[in-house]
Amino acid sequence: MINILLGLRQRDATGEGVYLDIAMTDAMFTFAWYAYAIGHATGRFPAPGELRLAGGSPRYQLYPTRDGKLIACGALEQKFWLAFCHTIELPAPLIDDRADPQATRQAIAAIIAREDAAHWEPKFAAADCCATIMASLEEALHDPHFVERGLFAHQVEGPAGASMPALPVPIAASLRAPPGAKASPRLGADNDLLQ
Question: What pTM value is reported for the model?
Answer without folding.
Answer: 0.71
